Amino acid sequence: MGYGYVAFVDLWRERVRVEELPEDAAELFIGGKGLLYYFGFKLAPRGGDPLDPRFNVLVVAPGFLAGLAPSASKVGFLARSPTTGILCDTYAGQVFAAKLRRAGFSALVIRGRARDPVYLYVEDGRIELREAAHLWGSSTWDTWQAVRRETRLGASVAAIGPAGENLVRIANIMVDGFRAAGRCGLGAVMGSMNLKAIAVWGSRAPEVHDREGLRKAYLELYERFRRDEATRAWARYGTNDGVTHCARLSMCPTRHWRRPWLPEDEARRLSGDEVLAREAPRSAYREYAGVIWGWGCPAKCAKLASPRAKGREYVVVKPEYENLAMLGLAPEVLDLDEVLLTEKLVNDLGIDSISFGEVVSWLMELVEEGLVRPEELGGLRRPPRFGDAEAVRELARLVAWRRGIGAVLAEGVERAAQILGRGADRAVHVKGLEQAAWDPRGRRGLGVSYATADVGASHLRGWPEPHEPPSRGPASQTVESMIRDRDWKALQDTMGLCAFIPYEPEDVARLYRLATGREVPPEELMRVGWRTEALARVYAALLGRVPEHDAAPRRWMEPVPEGPLRGSRAFADERDFREALRTFYRLRGYHEEYGVPLPETLERLGIGWASDEARRALEAVRARLAG
Ligand code: SF4
Questions:
Q1: Which residues line ligand 1 (CB under 6 A)?
Q2: Which of 5, 179, 290, 595 is the most interior residue, by most CB within 10 Å?
Q3: What is the DSSP letter of 309?
Q4: Ligand 1 atom index nearest CA of 499
Q5: Is residue 625 within 8 Å of 617, Cβ to Cβ?
Q6: In terms of pTM, does the model score above 0.70?
Q7: Residue 19 β-bridge partners
């Protein structure tokens, strides 16, 4: 088989160049996450404002197995994040990835800024830039519908909403109206490029080494997953029973991370059963059948919900735990119909619900503590208080249009605190990325994952195995298991596999062999995550984020106030945190104090071509820390 094709799209000159994927990229970085970091590291400038297209690049890459294996459904987007300044990758599921692979592309690399708004239409090896002025200002949902009508009804569409257009630094990219590539504000990067959407449609099965073998493996795995008991149980709720779990584990973001433990009766109000009680009628499933579930998914955990909402009838995708937690628990809105309304609004505006939940609940805390004066809350009809769902939605609109206090929150929590000159010690983020909805005080060691993750406080960069009980013991003892899980997750994102389907590394190696003819042991495939992490850390060190921002927000060290883990912290103390970081650096072959990959580690990983930059990064960190 060939290595696949990459399209380089130059929006300044309205030109597209298609090249074969370089051999070293195909073999060492494979697809999805791997290729995102390969191109991102090679092409993203080392500085400048990420919202100035001269200093950024947007890479889109489907998982390598997209459309070739059950639930291989993930597409990744990467650019320099407008909130963190460093490289950031974020993913969306279902059918976009497979359609992009079937259109013949392993990656799209987009640069520049179109003179007027455009969308990109990719179909079977061809790429067109189409005029999108008529879509500017539209919601992500309306854009999806309109672009499908203008291209093909079967096209999959990644679009930004008003938030992305208005360069809101926490804007997301919505895929087919329902799925968010949510993190790091990449919607604003598209907005800065005048790029409203990317639509894809493809009809050609990707070239593979052993088509018949792959077909048999597909059917066999599909059947195995379909019969798997855990998968069947998963199908009932997906992640939407997460509030029940975070409540029990003391890991919820309730009241801006001040109530990580919740009693059962409160948690039940946002439970999976409550969501199921609002399941949409069958007709809705017929209407959206092609985009609800991942390509070839045996579990079909995604469902549609109809909120019982004040005379308005519409359908939302059944919320993920992160939506329920950050739009419900964080601002302490424990009314599911209100949360679903907010979810719909935030998705339509194109705002990342995790980051939005953080900035809003952070502001509510500042208001409650008297740290923000009423006259600073421009645009709001009343001060935002915990539990006030209307205030949350009002803030969403202000953020999307950058009006009043919304213009401050639109900057993300780290910058918002700098602008207000208050609240930095209450902001919960790492490297500028607002923390995902799992409080590390309930799982000793999760804080190391957040602190060292390539992008900032993402919950998808490796979980440690729990201690007994999970909140005690030295954090350094959890690091090895976290690294294993991190590398496995990175391989899933490289291959495009849904993390909720019980693949084993051996299954992935088998599928990879059938697709490519290359026999690569699972542990070697898993190294792709180490490679991408190493490149991400060299890049972040050059920009001043590593190691200085491998840091713990103050809230992690405030004891859990109530419940079975009362008194627990993310780390026993500062020394425990430092020791865990050093353990991580040592196990990864990074400089033990600076956290920067050593040149010999890069050689070992087969990416010695990044060694000069690693040396520069080491020098830069040495000078910064000495100064
Ligand atoms: S298990 Fe759920 S999230 Fe994963 S591909 Fe299937 S429907 Fe999508």
A1: 71, 73, 93, 238, 293-294, 297, 299-302, 498, 500-501
A2: 179
A3: B
A4: 4
A5: no
A6: yes
A7: 6
